[in-house]
Amino acid sequence: MNRKKLVAQLSYVFKDHTGRQFKGCDKKVLEIEEAVFPAENPELEIMYLPNDVDTSRIVENLESNTFSRFLNIIYMIVVFNFSVLFVIQFYLTVFDA
Is this prediction's pTM over 0.85? Predict the structure, then answer.
């Protein structure tokens, strides 16, 4: 079942390691149910640059599923090629071809 999604602009407040409070904003993809019945004061994990606290993002946005799948495919291709080369080298060594 294909669920409808909504992109929302979120503003948030977070504290750095020294306890100073900062404001940030980011986009988040929500299910329609989340948009209709939002959680009161939801806690989000925020990642920020210590040297530039104005640069902050919601952590789940940094974990791209598309990029992970891409890396997984690249990894599988590399492992497959290595396996083929290993089998060929083994064959040449054992059968002295």
Answer: no
